[in-house]
C-alpha cells in the first residue's frame, strides 16, 4: 500500500519565515506531521488555512529536518523539473565566465533550490557534494540530470562528514584525482577526490583578483596561505616578493605546484614558511606592504562566535602592526556564525585603535557563482584597508 503524502505544519513564525524565502526548517519549528517520515522523502508544508506553502526534503535525523526546494504554487518535483532548474543554474554561469575560467560553482545548494547539494566544475570534471542524506534515494535521477545539463567527462560524488556509510568517489569512468583548471587565465590544481571542500576554494576567486590588482610593487604576505591562490594572483599583479605561511607542509607543496603551473611568474621571489600562523605573526619583526589574513573557519557553532571574534581581532591587530606605512590589510572570514557586520566592524575598530590614518578600499563577499539567498548562506566576507 502506497504511503500517504507526508504533510508538515509549522509554528506561525516558521511559516512566515518559509513564506519569506528561507529554505531551512529547524526541528523546533515543526508543529506537527501526519506520520513519521523517512530520510529523502518529499514533505509538503501546508499553512494554517490548509493551503500549499512549500515542498522540500525530509530528513528526521538532521537538526534541519526539512529543506525547502520550492514554494509558491504546487509543482511536481520530477526529473523534468530538476532538469529545468539545473539548466537555469547553467545559464546564470554562462554570462559570468569567459574561456579563461573553467573552475566555478555550477549549483549552489539551498540558495538555488537544490537543498543540501553543491556542484563544482573543474575543467572536464564535475564534483558533486552532498550535505543531506535526502539525496541518496534520488541519486540516480540527479546524476542523470547533471550529466545531461553540464556534460562532464568525469563525475565525482563526495559527502559531508556528518553523512556516514555513503560511498564516495568517481561515478562511472575514473579520471585524475588532481585536476588542473583555469582561473582568470591562471592555472591551479584541485584535489577533486580528497581535497578540502570540493578541491579548491572557488568562493574567493574575485577577492584573489582584487589582491592581484593591489599587489604591484608590493612585498606580499599571505597568512594561512593553503595552496597559494592569493599569492599566485599577487605575483601576476606585479608583487615584488610573496611569502606564504601555513602550518601544513602539504599545503605549501601545493602552492609550489601552483606556481610551477604558471612559469611566467618564476621571476617573482617567493618564500614558503611552515608555521602556526597565529604564533608566527605574533613573533615576526618583519614588515610588509600587503598582508592577507584568511584563516579557516574559527566558529563551527554559534557558541564559538565570541572566541572566534577574539582570535580574529588578535590576528588582525598583529597584521596591522606588521604593515609598512601605506600598506594594505586584506582581512577575510569564512565563519558563517560571525556575521559580516560583526567582522567588518571589528576590523574597522582595530584600524582605528592603531591610531594610523586609514582608507577602506573595498569590502566584498562571495564570488558571483556562489549566490546567497538567505542569512546563513552569507558566510564569506573580506575587506581591504590601506593604512598610513
Description:
The chain is an alpha/beta fold. The chain folds into three domains: 6-71, Roll (Archaeosine Trna-guanine Transglycosylase, Chain: A, domain 4); 79-186, 2-Layer Sandwich (Transcription Regulator spoIIAA), CATH 3.30.750.80; 202-387, Vaccinia Virus protein VP39 (Rossmann fold). Helices cover 27% and strands 29% of the residues. The protein is built from nine helices and 20 strands. The protein has helices at 12-19, 79-94, 139-150, 205-214, 229-236, 249-260, 277-283, 305-321, 340-354; strands at residues 6-10, 24-25, 30-33, 42-46, 52-58, 66-71, 103-108, 117-122, 125-130, 154-159, 169-170, 178-183, 186-191, 219-223, 241-246, 270-274, 288-293, 323-333, 358-364, 381-387. The strands form four sheets. It has a seven-stranded mixed β-sheet, with helices on both faces. Helix 4 (205-214) packs parallel to helix 5 (229-236). The longest helix has 17 residues, at 305-321. The mean pLDDT is 95. One of its GO terms (molecular function) is methyltransferase activity. Keywords: Cytoplasm, Methyltransferase, S-adenosyl-L-methionine, Transferase.
Amino acid at each position: 500500500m502506497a504511503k500517504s503524502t507526508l504533510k508538515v505544519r509549522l509554528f506561525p513564525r516558521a511559516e512566515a519565515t518559509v513564506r519569506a524565502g528561507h529554505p531551512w526548517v529547524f526541528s523546533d519549528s515543526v508543529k506537527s506531521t501526519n506520520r513519521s517520515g523517512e530520510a529523502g522523502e518529499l514533505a509538503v508544508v501546508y499553512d494554517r488555512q490548509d493551503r500549499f506553502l512549500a515542498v522540500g526534503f525530509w530528513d528526521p535525523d538532521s537538526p534541519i529536518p526539512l529543506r525547502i526546494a520550492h514554494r509558491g504554487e504546487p509543482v511536481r518535483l520530477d526529473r523534468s523539473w530538476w532538469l529545468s532548474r539545473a539548466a537555469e543554474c547553467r545559464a546564470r554561469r554562462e554570462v559570468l565566465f569567459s574561456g579563461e575560467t573553467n573552475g566555478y560553482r555550477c549549483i549552489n545548494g539551498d540558495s538555488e533550490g537544490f537543498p543540501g547539494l553543491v556542484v563544482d566544475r573543474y575543467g572536464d570534471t564535475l564534483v558533486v557534494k552532498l550535505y543531506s542524506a535526502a539525496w541518496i534515494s534520488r541519486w540516480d535521477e540527479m546524476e542523470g540530470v547533471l550529466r545531461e545539463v553540464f556534460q562532464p567527462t568525469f563525475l565525482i560524488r563526495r559527502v559531508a562528514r556528518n553523512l556516514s556509510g555513503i560511498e564516495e568517489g568517481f561515478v562511472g569512468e575514473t579520471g585524475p584525482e588532481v585536476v588542473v583548471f583555469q582561473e582568470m587565465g591562471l592555472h591551479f590544481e584541485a584535489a577533486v577526490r580528497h581535497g578540502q571542500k570540493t578541491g579548491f576554494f572557488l568562493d574567493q576567486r574575485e577577492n584573489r583578483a582584487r589582491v592581484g590588482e593591489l599587489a604591484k610593487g608590493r612585498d606580499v604576505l599571505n597568512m594561512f596561505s593553503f595552496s597559494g591562490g592569493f599569492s599566485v594572483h599577487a605575483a601576476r599583479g606585479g608583487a615584488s616578493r610573496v611569502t606564504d605561511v601555513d602550518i601544513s607542509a602539504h599545503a605549501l607543496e601545493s602552492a609550489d605546484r601552483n606556481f610551477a603551473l604558471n612559469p611566467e611568474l618564476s621571476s617573482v621571489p617567493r618564500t614558503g614558511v611552515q608555521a602556526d600562523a597565529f604564533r608566527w605573526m605574533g613573533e615576526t619583526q618583519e614588515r610588509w606592504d600587503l598582508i592577507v589574513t584568511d584563516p579557516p573557519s574559527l566558529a563551527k557553532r554559534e557558541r564559538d562566535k565570541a572566541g572566534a571574534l577574539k582570535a580574529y581581532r588578535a590576528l588582525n591587530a598583529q597584521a596591522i602592526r606588521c604593515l609598512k606605512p601605506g600598506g594594505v590589510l586584506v582581512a577575510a572570514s569564512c565563519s558563517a556564525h560571525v556575521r559580516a557586520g560583526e567582522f567588518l566592524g571589528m576590523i574597522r575598530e582595530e584600524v582605528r585603535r592603531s591610531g594610523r590614518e586609514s582608507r577602506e578600499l573595498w569590502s566584498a563577499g562571495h564570488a558571483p557563482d556562489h549566490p546567497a539567498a538567505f542569512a546563513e548562506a552569507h558566510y564569506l566576507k573580506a575587506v581591504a584597508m590601506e593604512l598610513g
